[in-house]
Design brief:
Mean pLDDT: 87
Oligomer: single chain
Distance between the termini: 60 Å
Structural class: alpha+beta
Strand order of the largest sheet: 2-3-10-5-8-11
CATH topology of the largest domain: Jelly Rolls
Low-confidence stretches: none
Shape: elongated
Strand content: 15-25%
CATH class of the largest domain: Mainly Beta
CATH architecture of the largest domain: Sandwich
Number of strands: 11
Radius of gyration: 24 Å
Order of helices and strands: EEEEEEEEEEHHEHHHHHHHHHH
CATH superfamily of the largest domain: Jelly Rolls
């Protein structure tokens, strides 16, 4: 994480700036603290490849936050509230702060660059945005990290780095408990038009690599929103659906044609005959050869 795509601020009054902006960097972690004492509206935005976790000490007279295409969330008294978004999610919004000293601390982190343990935690999990939430343990850790960052006399990089690592672990523990109902309620299914486009896209490309980014793009949704909307509509995750369609296409080719099994594997998007055999057996219960023999009556 040599360079981090940080949260951008744009004040309505062009001559306005934060009263304080401090940042620190460790392996896989960047932490920033921003303090605003004047009363001036501003817009904010973020889209990056790192995980984003913010602790707010804000009171807003008005404003809202939009994460991808989820319903906008209004501001208000955001003291001790936190916001988290996974990589590649976008944040946009605006804020009209009340006349007080407002601040926020943002932790950007890359689990793969922090430690092997955090990489393993985050690679096996599905992460959802959390907007203006609270969790006592995580909030306590972020406050300690903020105190280190804003204390002119503090010079304990090891302690601060440890707090950043702890925050990443505590966030993962929070996510592993399941999505809050407030998040689930904002996630709907695919529209009929979106479902038709996605199904057609998959059918036309069963012999090619199909990425989640591509499917989400067809539906014009973020990866996070698309994966959940797809499962809500079709009852299974995108990768599972695609695999089943590949196997169905392969079964049809086995029955209708005399193509070699290796050619059928390639035609249905498998990298090798051995991979095709394993997947086919998992979904059908028999090998492709057995399926062909049985269907031919041999």
């Amino acid at each position: 994480m040599d360079d981090v795509e940080a949260l951008s601020l744009k004040f309505k009054k062009a001559d306005r700036r934060p009263d304080m902006h401090r940042s620190a960097k460790w392996s896989g972690i960047v932490c920033e603290h921003t303090r605003i004492s004047h009363q001036s509206d501003y817009a904010f935005a973020f889209t990056g490849s790192a995980h984003y976790l913010a602790l707010h000490d804000l009171i807003l007279a008005d404003g809202n936050m939009l994460v991808d295409d989820l319903k906008p969330v209004p501001g208000g008294d955001l003291r001790n509230k936190m916001t988290y978004v996974p990589p590649q999610c976008s944040i946009t919004g605006w804020a009209s702060p009340v006349d007080r000293t407002n601040s926020f601390t943002v932790l950007y982190f890359d689990p793969a660059a922090i430690a092997e343990e955090t990489e393993r935690l985050y690679s096996s999990a599905d992460h959802a945005p959390l907007i203006y939430f609270d969790d006592t343990a995580l909030r306590s850790t972020l406050i300690k990290l903020q105190d280190v960052l804003t204390d002119d006399s503090a010079d304990d990089g090891l302690y601060a780095e440890t707090l950043g690592l702890l925050a990443a672990i505590e966030l993962q523990r929070l996510q592993s408990r399941g999505l809050p109902e407030s998040v689930k309620s904002r996630i709907g299914g695919l529209s009929a038009g979106q479902e038709k486009l996605v199904r057609e896209y998959i059918e036309d490309r069963l012999g090619e690599e199909i990425r989640l980014d591509d499917l989400a793009g067809v539906a014009r949704l973020s990866r996070f929103h698309f994966a959940r909307a797809f499962k809500s509509t079709l009852g299974e995750p995108p990768h599972r659906y695609v695999m089943k369609r590949r196997i169905d296409r392969a079964k049809d080719l086995l029955v209708r044609t005399s193509l070699p099994i290796s050619d059928i594997a390639t035609a249905t998007g498998f990298r090798s005959a051995s991979q095709f055999n394993r997947a086919f057996r998992e979904f059908v219960g028999v090998t492709p050869s057995t399926c062909r023999r049985t269907s031919s009556g041999a």
